[in-house]
Amino acid sequence: MSLLVLSGVGKSFPRRGGAVRALDGVDLSVPRGQFLCVVGASGSGKSTLLSLIAGLVRPTAGEVRLDGHPVTGPGPDRGLVFQQGAIYPWRTVERNVAFGLELLPLGRAERDRRVAWYLAETGLTALRHVLPKQLSGGQRQRVAIARALACEPEVLLLDEPFGALDVQTKEDMQLFIRRVWQDTGTTVVMVTHDVEEAVFLGQRVVVLASDPGRVAADLPVNLPAERELSAKRLPEFLSIRARVEDLVRAYHRRHQEKQAV
User: Fold this and answer.
1) Most-buried pick from 24, 44, 144, 183 (CB within 10 A)?
2) Structural domains in the chain?
3) What mean pLDDT comes out for the span 34-53?
4) Per-residue pLDDT tens for 113-141?
5) Residue 50 contacts by C-beta under 8 Å, 6 or more apart in sequence?
6) Measuring CA to CA, which residue among 188, 176, 151 is closest to residue 76?
């Protein structure tokens, strides 16, 4: 049984004169432990999809289920990281990572154990007493990811987490998140506008069409499980990337044509 299941999910937002449909009829199943990447043109509802899974908004149609239970709001079984990691500037790295754990019914020893493990896993142990203002952009995102993972969620949700980083730092973070995913076995659903990133990171890439957002393609990524940046030069990688780019470009063009009418 899939860990995460979306069945006929739709989401509309009110606006003057009616409503705008962000998503319509989305069916999606994510097996436990999978790394899924979602891409799409403007207006495809990528971030709305992630917000529905996170429980930040409720669907206007259909249902989101996690481990067989309906998603009705946020919970510790889902960790969410945005493009700007939103870590607390007055807390040290260590206390940022510990934040979610303070809200759970855990003993001090278990909290300390988890904080230490995730600091080590994300390469932050030497920075544990540092404030966020002293960190680079990549380091801040590591803190945000460590904080989300420390609660040991069923699903890690990533919303354009590396979009604000420079190219070199972004590639470093891509290698980092794949290693963390392999080490923890956490199910990951990541939204990104970067097709190359989606193909490199994902075991599977879902392409959303626009107006309203819906699943246009669901593609397996048949690349080695152990990936270095050199995988981006493989013929298989280039072929999948080209296919996804063509789909995103086609739906973006249709979106522009519809907007111009």
Assistant:
1) 44
2) 1-77+190-261 (3.40.50.300)
3) 92
4) 999 999 999 999 999 999 999 999 899 99
5) 38, 80, 157, 159, 189, 191
6) 151
